[in-house]
Design goal:
Layout: E1 2-7, E2 10-15, H1 22-28, E3 47-50, E4 53-56, E5 69-71, H2 77-89, H3 99-112, H4 118-125, H5 136-149
Parallel strand pairs: 1-5
Antiparallel strand pairs: 1-2, 3-4, 3-5
Helix pairs in contact: 2-3, 2-5
């Protein structure tokens, strides 16, 4: 199927199979920040934005993204670095494999929720799995980042 998608502001004309998932399409086209984890929408590693909404690209068919705007970590480098610095300061970066999807989710949350409670943060991050950190450092980093953003 011939479709057009826009990734990080760049229009791409693609020929994709009807069962191709967005994760594979993005990685094939050089967007390597999108990580493969579970292939079941359970871990959050493959999180990207489709029309500014968090989508788990491992189960999102590429054809559904036709004529839509997709944002990957490569498209939000400044904001991602800003938040990643907070993760590093809290010792919450560890191996980094989950970081791209986690960062995309946190950046989306920071745009969507105004001064979220800790319960709202946990709810928003449900499905973003990390094997290294124990989550406490990540939550500290998120709270400090959100406080920084609100100034």
């Amino acid at each position: 199927m011939n479709i057009t998608i826009t990734v990080n502001g760049r229009k791409l004309a693609l020929d994709v199979s009807p069962d191709e998932v967005l994760l594979d399409t993005l990685r094939t086209n050089g967007y390597l920040s999108v990580q493969r984890g579970c292939d079941t929408s359970s871990c959050g590693l493959c999180a990207v934005w489709v029309d500014n909404q968090v989508v788990l690209s491992c189960t999102y068919l590429t054809v559904r993204a036709a004529n839509k705007n997709i944002t990957t970590l490569e498209g939000v480098q400044k904001e991602a670095k800003e938040f990643a610095d907070f993760l590093a300061d809290e010792g919450a970066d560890q191996c980094g494999y989950c970081a791209p999807g986690f960062i995309m989710t946190v950046l989306a949350m920071s745009k969507e929720l105004n001064k979220p409670s800790e319960e709202e943060i946990y709810h928003y991050l449900n499905g973003n799995l990390c094997r290294c950190t124990g989550y406490k450092g990540q939550i500290r980093a998120i709270n400090k980042y959100l406080e920084f953003k609100s100034k």
